[in-house]
Amino acid sequence: MAVRVRSFAKINLGLRIGAVRADGFHELRTVYQTVALHDFITLQAKRGSGIEIQCSNPAVPCDSTNTCYRIVEKALKVLKTKARVVISIEKKLPVQGGLGGASGNAVAALIALQHALKRRLSGPDKLRIAAEVGSDVPLFLVGGMVLGMGRGEEVYPLPDAANLPCVIGLPEIAVSTAQAFRDWDGAPALRAPGQPMAAVPTRAEINPKLTSSDASDRITEFSRAVSAWLAVPQHKTGKALSGVSAGRGGRAGNPLLDLVHTGIENDFEQVVFPKYPELREVKAVLVRSGAIYASLSGSGSAVYGLFPSRDEAERAAERLKKRDMRAVVTTTLGRFQYWAKMLD
Is residue 136 annotated as part of the catalytic site, yes or no? Predict the structure, then answer.
């Protein structure tokens, strides 16, 4: 029996990069938010053994390096079972776009495998296997708004908010996350003090001295912002608030917007924007078009903006398209909707 699963994307609501850890990874703090854009994963489990990956996109590996291959291989070992597994990936999300496409594919394949085999892995086993495959894979086992800690693999569900229209600019650029980290580690040499800043600067650009102490401070700053946000009485009540206030400068009455109004930012913008100035311009267009919040997602290249209405989002997307930029209008996706819409 073939099982078809939607593999949703994510955006990052702020991302702080800390010091390099003993295991070679950077300490991170971020808030993930799933969105309705998706790939499709179709999985068949037959008698026999082996894993086959099928995908028409030449940028997607079809060997043992594919995230779907790796997670299914690990799951079969934990389940102590054999099967001939064929996985077809219908790719709509960009490769190396910062939207977690490959990571979401892995979790979708895992969910499909369980349905195909009619076997279930425990929650802890799924999270462990996911973390072994990739740092942002575990978030897709939660969905909605998710706090990411450690190297991003330590995930905690956060209060969901009403869905918001979201415009995602999709430049024809592949940004290497590994290279972005290397650029970050060398960031002090990017710009001498006093050098003029381009449009839409980040706080990190204003003070680029990224010492180990600064890295720790930035992690702490992000953690405090999220903690303060969680401490607001509306979250203690457990009531999911909806709607957007008329005044954009005040509190929005929406947990997601309350969070972004704390001033959280994506550190990768400091090193990715100078290298790819067209991405900075995408963000600037979104801001000028009325985005309540705009940011690079992950290490890019996708740049997104959150809007108070679908109409405003559509107009912003049209402005990007007139610049020969691929842009799509989607929506944020809460936890319940994420799981309800996963199975096709």
Answer: yes
